[in-house]
Specification:
elongated; about 50% helix; disordered C terminus
Length: about 180
């Protein structure tokens, strides 16, 4: 039988040692910048880390979450954790206004377009939000035909499927030297 009358000793580490209480912003920073998402680590597996990031995003101000996602991508060179952070921002009404600009900065490789859509559809295939479409469309012109062809591989999300969701043709303009007239 479970006991309810137990002594609460405050926050603990995974090993049971006493821990200091830190703010949700610092918890998100620690979880985001010190992880390889969905990879098992010493004390916890990657799924727990992803769940913690998802839990902490709504507790932190939108501007700070966006700045952390950009820092994780640009300074720490992480790929999946910033994409998950932007996905969680898109779920919460208070964070949606910064999704498009943050997503456009976080996506730096052509394969991250499809990776983000895969993360977005991880819990079921739902329509992409307007801010997500704007962010993906803003990120699309960063890549030329070579980069897009290089990462158009077999996977659950194909480039053609991505293009039909986002319609980047409105954003694409002919570049000098790309062979388009």
């Amino acid at each position: 039988m479970a006991r309810l009358n137990t002594l609460n000793l405050g926050p603990r580490t995974h090993e049971g040692a006493p821990a200091r209480h830190i703010s949700p912003e610092l918890q998100l920073r620690r979880s985001l910048l010190a992880c390889l998402l969905w990879e098992s680590q010493f004390y916890e597996d990657g799924v727990e880390i992803g769940g913690r990031i998802a839990e902490l995003v709504p507790k932190v101000a939108a501007e700070k979450v966006a700045a952390l996602a950009v820092e994780a991508r640009e300074q720490m060179k992480l790929r999946h954790a910033p994409l998950l952070t932007v996905r969680e921002m898109a779920r919460h009404k208070t964070h949606r206004a910064l999704v498009a600009s943050t997503l456009a900065r976080v996506i730096q490789r052509a394969d991250e377009l499809a990776e983000f859509v895969a993360i977005y559809w991880k819990d079921g295939r739902v329509p992409l939000s307007g801010q997500v479409k704007k962010g993906l469309a803003a990120a699309f012109p960063k890549f030329d035909e070579y980069a897009l062809a290089k990462y158009d591989r077999g996977g659950p999300i194909k480039l053609r499927e991505f293009c039909s969701c986002v319609t980047p043709s409105r954003v694409m303009r002919p570049r000098p030297g790309c062979g388009r007239s």
